[in-house]
């Protein structure tokens, strides 16, 4: 059984109910703007209510020109961690890693190691999808009840940075409705995987977080 060792590059932790949103668009210089930079994690019920969708966005604040040049890194794995026992330790992982023009997915499966070091269990391969090209129709693959996507997307996170600064500066008392979307016109590189809930255990609450890990 072949396994590839990966070491933690960046983590973002959040708790998921039916809908989860977490965002972090500015990181340390070592990861900002590259394939290890996670901007958002989303977990939500699929259009098929028997499924749960997981989305991880990376490389935020991409202009249209920068989006054309942006790529996933073959030495960076994106890992979705799922805790279904409430102890904040991953019981299941879903892993995605690029090879050539495709994104390969593994899991969900119970990892042999937890925390900052991961391995890829190739026997747990669940599917692959050709990475979509910016400006063209998205490519979606399906296998064994799961759906997969990888590629550029409009940044879905809404944040009024100007108003936020005004609040911090004491010249405003709250956000406007709807406010100004600072991220309008910018893009991210995203992976999305939709999974039958039956593959995730029987817990009525999941803790979900995502990490990027670099190959060692």
UniProtKB/TrEMBL annotation:
Residues 1-22 form the signal peptide. It comes from Flavobacterium fructosi. InterPro entries: DUF4331. This is DUF4331 family protein. Keywords: Signal. It holds the Pfam family DUF4331.
């Amino acid at each position: 059984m072949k396994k590839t060792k990966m070491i933690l590059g960046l983590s973002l932790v959040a708790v998921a109910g039916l809908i989860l949103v977490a965002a972090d668009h500015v990181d340390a210089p070592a990861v900002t703007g590259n394939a290890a930079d996670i901007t958002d994690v989303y977990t939500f019920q699929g259009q098929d209510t028997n499924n749960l969708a997981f989305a991880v966005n990376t490389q935020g604040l991409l202009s249209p020109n920068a989006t054309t040049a942006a790529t996933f890194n073959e030495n960076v794995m994106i890992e979705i961690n799922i805790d279904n026992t409430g102890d904040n330790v991953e019981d299941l992982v879903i892993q995605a890693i690029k090879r050539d023009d495709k994104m390969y997915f593994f899991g969900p499966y119970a990892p042999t190691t937890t925390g900052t070091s991961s391995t890829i269990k190739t026997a747990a391969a669940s599917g692959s999808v050709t990475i979509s090209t910016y400006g063209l129709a998205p490519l979606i693959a399906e296998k064994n009840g799961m759906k997969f996507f990888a590629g550029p997307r409009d940044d879905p996170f809404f944040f009024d940075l100007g108003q936020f600064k005004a609040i911090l500066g004491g010249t405003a008392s709250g956000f406007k409705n709807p406010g100004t979307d600072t991220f309008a016109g910018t893009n991210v590189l995203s992976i999305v995987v939709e999974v039958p809930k039956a593959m995730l255990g029987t817990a009525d609450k999941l803790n979900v977080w995502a990490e990027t890990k670099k190959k060692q």
